[in-house]
Amino acid sequence: xxxxxxxxxxxxxVREEVKQGVAALVAERGRPPGLSVIxxxxxxxxxxxxxxxxxxxxEVGIAGELHRLPTSTTETELLALLRRLNDxxxxxxxxxxxxxxxxxxxxxxxxxxxxxxDVDGFHPxxxxxxxxxxxxxxxCTPLGCMRLLREAxxxxxxxxAVVVGRSNIVGKPMAQLLLAESATVTIAHSQTRDLPVLxxxxxxxxxxxxxxxxxxxxxxxxxxxVIDVGINRDTDGKLVGDIDFxxxxxxxxxxxxxxxxxxxxxxxxxxxxxxxxxxxxxLARHAHDLCQ
Length: 292
Ligand code: NDP
Prior knowledge:
Elements: E1 3-4, H1 7-29, E2 34-40, H2 44-59, E3 63-69, H3 75-87, E4 93-96, H4 106-112, H5 124-131, H6 140-151, E5 160-164, H7 171-180, E6 184-188, H8 195-200, E7 204-207, E8 225-228, E9 232-233, E10 239-240, H9 245-248, E11 254-255, H10 262-291
Parallel strand pairs: 1-11, 2-3, 2-4, 5-6, 5-7, 7-8, 8-11
Antiparallel strand pairs: 9-10
Helix pairs in contact: 1-10, 2-10, 6-7, 6-10
Bound molecules: NADPH dihydro-nicotinamide-adenine-dinucleotide phosphate.
């Protein structure tokens, strides 16, 4: 029987750490970190996500601000808002909720966010820093997965890791983070051959595909650590992951449930990223002042 990696409990602990860090920063610089969340349009899931992000920020003392723009917003208008937020000293973190309406190019928008305020870690500068093993703002979901592995004390050095999925948001940064911890990493995707055989080699198996219960228990090596990033609805409308939990759990050493595994870690790490962006910006300003 696999030990459950409880993202709800670990996420709550991260939020508490952030709350304390925020209080310390307020004492030091007299104002809380600021997080601006931008939502364009009315996508129901995005409305819920952005509200949750703003609410979670406020709960730990971050000044969360939700900018809701109409579906008809042009790229030029959104870029103008980003310029204003980039220049606003009180804003430490900026997040644009994806997906964007079709008239707006997501790449142009993500590229326009100040990398120092890019709390989602999607700006090419942060992607490049992560790839070259330098300090950066790292995408929240893979950062949350790493925290789960760390809390469980899973050995990473030399471990065989298979990441199924190669998105910029989850798969690729997850692979980079595991590599940075000296795991031997394979990235699988829709064109990968013999996926079950590959998965069976993994000490650490991360699924970030978006296909309900695709990965079966007999793809899981006895004792492996299984991290399920997927959030899907099955045919009965039930929320399930990419892993078939019922058949995988008896074989796994550790496993994340869906819901209550990776999901709660994502918002917790967004708050952690906002605090670290605020700290770095304070340090940079301090260094700048010293040089004046
Ligand atoms: P994407 O759709 O961007 O990427 C999916 C990846 O899975 C692609 O790389 C794709 O390969 C690969 N894939 C698709 N089908 C197969 C297959 N049959 N075999 C192997 N690989 C396959 O999704 P995301 O990375 O954005 O999200 C993945 C899942 O994680 C979704 O369920 C999403 O809802 C969830 N998610 C959860 C979060 C959380 O907080 N828990 C946060 C973000 C996402 P290819 O590149 O070849 O097309």
